[in-house]
Amino acid sequence: MKATTDQASPKFVAPAARIVTFDQDGTTWVEQPMYTQVIYCLERVAVLAKAKPDLKDVEPFRTVLSGNREAMAKFTMPDLEKILAATLTGMTVGAVRRQVKDWLGTAKHPRFKRPYTELVYQPMLEVMRLFRANGYKAYFATGGGQDFVRVYSEQVYGVPPEQVVGSAGGTKFGYDKAAGRCSPRSPKLVC
What we know:
The protein is an alpha/beta fold.
């Protein structure tokens, strides 16, 4: 660290160029029995099934609604992708952010009985603080859904949304007549 912050060092990095990048999964947040975002999506299936009752008879939604955690732990990637797509689409980015924020305010890990926002790897938080204390700007690059991780990282790590790059299935932009401006819609276009 000293080599990059000492102006006399040949490895000196100007403050405006100091960045550090972290990965979310396997580095900073709890991921057992599943990633926090996957748990969020699994819990959203019940809400989705109220609006679309036919999902109660379709896999993998039927398994999720049964509450059988052992069966859910055996989901394949395509199963998880169906759940993620169904629970994270058809709403504005703002609506997703509000839902995630509300969920993070109440959700607790089934084993530890603590909020997910408290289940982070403390040494990594210390590393982030050290870098910030030395003028580095922290970013996240993650395979997690960027809208979810942007809310989580801002609340837990103090990393603002514009410093989080994550996965996104697709975002469509449209004209929001109520607001009188163009706004991102994920992925439903409402004009």
